[in-house]
């Protein structure tokens, strides 16, 4: 297929583009920043540019990974988020319909599912961790989440109005940067990221593969919204204990974790406040992340203990 990939110069785009090319697809990258996988430098907020790229390249499928993200809040005003995340998505959808594009995959975020109510509950000493699945009604807490949810609504509307097959992937954390609250975390960045594979992280390679599967499955499914995260070992019945004493819960599932962590001088979070349930993606989309917390521990087990 001839695939338009927005956000081709980003962390996900630089991983997804070569993966798509390895499968025999022709990838046309569109991003404001030039890179080896970006053929067109520009913004999706530019309707004429979007139209020209889709028509001139006879695009058959769109993977829409381009967006302003949470870190961009400090550098951009709210109108910029509306222009890129909402108007930009509408431009892509409108031109997809006009040119007969036959499938559309959008990268969204689990961030839009964390409302101020959830954050306040955690900060105020919630009694149990939040179990977060697609059944939760999102109430985003910032302009990033609001505009991503608006983009999701546009995708649903265009599917309903025009029958465009659309898959939305609400990805958990896969960015390489340190947590934006790293100053309050008494752990190394590697330690923190390892812990997060229990409940809110995946590798960028798994994120890319989820998009590959979504492209394949979109015409069959028609429409779907899926949380994409490493499979959690936890169940809903663990939520109270995860708030009170997360290390004990983790040890129950992974008895070797304290020993392997101790070799590195690592620690587990004292409390886990949320769990992303990626079960629907596995059952319906047919995708499961390859890297999970067990894989992290296996890697630690294979390493030479620090001296």
TrEMBL record:
InterPro entries named among the record's database cross-references: Epimerase_deHydtase, NAD(P)-bd_dom_sf
NAD-dependent epimerase/dehydratase domain span: 3-217
Pfam families attached to this UniProt entry: Epimerase (PF01370)
Gene3D superfamilies referenced in this protein's UniProt entry, alphabetically: NAD(P)-binding Rossmann-like Domain
Pathway(s) annotated for this protein in UniProt: Bacterial outer membrane biogenesis; LPS O-antigen biosynthesis
Family, per entry: Belongs to the NAD(P)-dependent epimerase/dehydratase family.
Protein's recorded name: NAD-dependent epimerase/dehydratase
């Amino acid at each position: 297929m001839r695939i338009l990939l927005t956000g081709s110069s980003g962390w996900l785009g630089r991983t997804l583009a070569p993966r798509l090319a390895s499968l025999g697809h022709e990838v046309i990258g569109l991003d404001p920043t030039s890179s080896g996988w970006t053929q067109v430098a520009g913004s999706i907020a530019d309707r004429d540019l979007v139209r020209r790229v889709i028509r001139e390249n006879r695009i058959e499928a769109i993977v829409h990974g381009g967006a302003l993200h949470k870190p961009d809040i400090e550098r951009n005003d709210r109108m910029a988020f509306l222009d890129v995340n909402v108007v930009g998505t509408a431009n892509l959808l409108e031109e997809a319909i006009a040119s007969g594009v036959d499938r559309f995959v959008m990268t969204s975020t689990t961030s839009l599912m964390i409302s101020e109510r959830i954050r306040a509950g955690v900060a105020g000493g919630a009694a149990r961790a939040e179990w977060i699945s697609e059944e939760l009604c999102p109430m985003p807490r910032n302009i990033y989440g609001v505009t991503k949810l608006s983009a999701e609504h546009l995708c649903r509307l265009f599917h309903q109005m025009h029958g465009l097959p659309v898959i939305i992937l609400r990805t958990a954390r896969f960015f390489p940067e340190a947590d934006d609250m790293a100053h309050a975390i008494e752990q190394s960045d590697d330690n923190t990221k390892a812990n997060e594979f229990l409940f809110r992280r995946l590798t960028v390679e798994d994120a890319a593969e989820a998009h590959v599967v979504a492209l394949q499955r979109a015409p069959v499914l028609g429409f779907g919204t899926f949380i994409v995260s490493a499979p959690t070992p936890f169940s809903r019945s663990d939520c109270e204990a995860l708030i009170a004493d997360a290390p004990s819960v983790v040890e129950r599932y992974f008895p070797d974790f304290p020993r392997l962590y101790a070799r590195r001088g690592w620690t587990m979070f004292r409390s886990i406040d949320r769990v992303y349930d990626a079960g629907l993606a596995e059952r319906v989309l047919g995708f499961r992340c390859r890297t999970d917390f067990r894989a992290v521990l296996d890697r630690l087990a294979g390493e030479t203990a620090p001296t």
